[in-house]
Each structure stands twice: as C-alpha cells, then as structure tokens.
From TrEMBL:
InterPro entries assigned: EcsC
Name this protein carries in UniProt: EcsC family protein
Length: 281
C-alpha cells in the first residue's frame, strides 16, 4: 500500500520522466550530433558486432570485479549499518525494502554524493594531466559510475550479486550512460520490463547484447572532451591549467550526476511498483 510520501516520489518521477521525454537540444548540441552521426557512419559495419560483444564482456567483467572488491563489500556493510539505525531487525539487503522511501533515499544519497565527488576529483586530475591521465579517464570514470549504480540498487534493497539483478543494473547503467536524447526510449523499455519481471529468468542471458550504435556517441563525446581539455591545458594561470582542471571536473561531475539520478529514479519507481499498482502512472 502506498502512502503520502510514496505518492510524492511518484509525482517527482513523473515530472522527471516528462522532462526526459521533452528534452530539447541546443543548436550546439544539434550540430555536434550531426558531426557525431557522420563519424559513426564511417565505421565499417563488419567491425561493429565484435566491438559490441567485446564491450559487453568488458562491462560484465568490470561489474563482477567491482561487486566482489573489498571496497564494494565494505560499502554494502555500511549500507546495512545505516539501515539498522532506522530498523534494527534488518539483516540483508532485501530487508531494506521494509524502510520508508525517505529513509532509503537518505541512505542512497550519501553513497551517490561520494561518487559524484570522486568523479569531480578524477575529472580535475584529467584536466590537469597529460596523455596518461587522458588515456585512463574513461575507464576510471566508468568504474566510478558503475559503482554508483550498484550502490544505488543496493540502497533500495536490490542485491546486484544475483544474476538477474546484475543484468538489470547493467541495463540501467547503459541507459543512463547514453546521451540524454536516447534515454527516454531506454527508460520506457526498463519500465516495460518491470511489468514482465515474473517472466524473466533468474539467470541472466549472457548472449544478450546491451550495446548498439548509440554507444559510439559516448566514445566520440569523450574524444571531444579530451581534445577540448588539451586546448585548455595550454591556458595557464600562475603556471596551473586551472581552466582545464575546472572544466574536466565539471564535465565528469555533471555526467555522473545524470547517471546517478537516472539510476535512483529507476530503483525508486521499481520499489514503488512492487508496493502498489502504478499502471495509471
């Protein structure tokens, strides 16, 4: 049964969903989009299937590595400790669903804030560095963002160590990673899949392809970012590439904020869907 606060969050999600659906691009974004589409068309079609397969494999392995890392295991225990402050009977992640959504949001917000800060610092380092830091910028950023999605899922009582939940978290991450104009379509698919949850297999289908042509926008946007930062690096203020540092930090922070917001909206909506009939939403 949904309460007043649950409906408050539903209204917030509905408003966010409308903004996502009606997202308008600026002229700069439209011109950049045309340029990116032109570059994507130049990629030989026969190279794409193997690229997508290898990228999906990379996401699976990165997910498993992060989830079984000491850092993430400690983070899981911290989530349970915070939850027990509100309800001492909580023993495992699934028990978190017993808590009111305000308390779950509070627990999630602390983890999300940390990872936004990590991405801010990491972006600043990229903006101040050279080829080495530029080369590891995307892998580090993706790791931070994937960790944040995992912790968001766990904060709302979903154990991403379960095979099916692992696949769902990867789907959420991939949808959130895409440019905003592609996200509404992926959001609707994720919502539709919620309604079919009982039909989904317990074990994930490792042959399922997560990535497609749209992922190239992420890589090409990353290239544009690094080129821009390389230009700003030459603009020194008292010997420090301050503009590059602030720009790199700001770009990474905004991207991580967008991803964590998408992930939290998804897991909030899913939790509320399990509590009541939201077909009218």
């Amino acid at each position: 049964m949904l309460n007043e606060r649950d409906y408050y969050y539903l209204d917030s999600i509905k408003l966010w969903e409308k903004e996502l659906q009606n997202d308008l691009q600026t002229d700069i974004e439209k011109n950049t989009e045309k340029w990116l589409n032109k570059l994507i068309k130049e990629i030989p079609p026969h190279l794409k299937p193997s690229f997508f397969t290898n990228l999906d494999d990379g996401f699976f392995h990165l997910h498993s590595y992060i989830q079984n890392s000491k850092f993430q295991l400690e983070a899981k225990e911290q989530l349970l400790l915070k939850a027990r402050v509100f309800n001492g009977s909580i023993q495992e992640l699934a028990d978190l669903k017993q808590l009111p959504i305000d308390q779950l949001h509070y627990i999630a917000a602390s983890s999300i804030a940390k990872h936004r800060l990590y991405s801010f610092i990491q972006g600043g380092m990229t903006g101040s560095g050279g080829m080495l830091l530029w080369g590891i910028d995307l892998p580090l950023l993706v790791s931070i963002q994937l960790k944040s999605v995992q912790l968001t899922a766990m904060s709302y009582g979903y154990n991403v160590n379960v095979p099916r939940e692992m696949m769902v978290s990867l789907q959420v991450f991939h949808a959130a990673l895409l440019p905003k104009k592609f996200q509404y379509e992926r959001w609707k698919k994720l919502v539709d899949d919620m309604e079919k949850e009982e039909e989904l297999p317990f074990f994930c289908n490792e042959t399922e392809v997560l990535t497609d042509d749209r992922i190239f926008h992420v890589f090409l946007s990353q290239t544009v970012k690094l080129v821009f930062l390389s230009l700003l690096k030459k603009k020194l203020i008292q010997g420090i590439p301050l503009l590059g540092i602030l720009t790199g930090a700001g770009i990474n922070y905004r991207q991580t904020k967008r991803i964590t917001e998408f992930a939290e909206k998804y897991y909030q909506f899913r939790l509320l869907t399990e509590k009541g009939d939201l077909t009218a939403l």
